[in-house]
């Protein structure tokens, strides 16, 4: 288990802030203070954990994996989406503050562009939040030529979307590409015509880079 580089500033600040009361507790024999500082440090820094050795549950390149850890909050079809220029199937994943927040690529692909949309900061458990909250849409093309997107959506507490990718960058299936800090939503958007099977349902728990959420036709 590592701490993600996307949260370097935050977990260093947390560590320094916790070190002061912990040192005071040890110096003055206030062990309760040192223990409390350690517990708080562990709880906060665990948000930035980055599990190692994750592998897709399937070796078939047509099986696309979840871009995030969390709970599937919706599986919907829309008549039009800027990622696909046509009908799209969206798998939406809700990440609580207890989930790993590192995002991962669902398949091998190349980044086409990134589109940032300013917006509100509604609680991501409210369905409307997926449409009106601040978001970052990364549009990609899979190795087999499918135009698709992954969308990071900020929430009431999570107000910082991190995605350092640039147009032309290549990502492997399961590779880390960014994170959203402190509770959020991530969407996988696939052209409906390219979907052979949606492998998850609303309420399912998924693991980023591991759980197969969609099988595509090519």
Could you give a quick summary of the protein structure above?
The protein is 18% helix and 39% strand.
Give an overview of the whole structure.
By secondary structure, this protein is an alpha+beta fold. The protein has two domains: 2-50, no CATH class; 63-216, Glucose Permease (Domain IIA) (Distorted Sandwich). The chain has helices spanning 8-28, 31-45, 129-132; strands at 2-3, 49-50, 63-65, 70-81, 86-95, 102-104, 109-117, 135-142, 147-153, 161-162, 170-171, 176-180, 184-191, 195-198, 205-206, 212-216. It has an eight-stranded antiparallel β-sheet with strand order 11-7-8-9-13-5-4-15. Strand 4 and strand 5 form a beta hairpin. The radius of gyration is 19 Å and the shape is elongated.
The CATH first-level class of the largest domain comes to Mainly Beta
Number of domains: 2
What is the overall pLDDT average?
Answer: 90
The main β sheet shows up as: 8 strands, antiparallel
If you consult CATH, what is the topology of the largest domain?
Answer: Glucose Permease (Domain IIA)
Percentage of residues in strands = 35-45%
> What's the total number of strands?
16
In quaternary terms, these chains amount to single chain
Order of helices and strands: EHHEEEEEEHEEEEEEEEE
Alpha carbon gap, first and last residue: 34 Å
> Portion of residues in helices?
10-25%
Give me the number of helical elements: 3
The geometry reads as elongated
In which order are the strands of the major sheet placed?
11-7-8-9-13-5-4-15
CATH architecture descriptor name of the largest domain: Distorted Sandwich
Measured on Cα atoms, how large is the radius of gyration? Answer: 19 Å
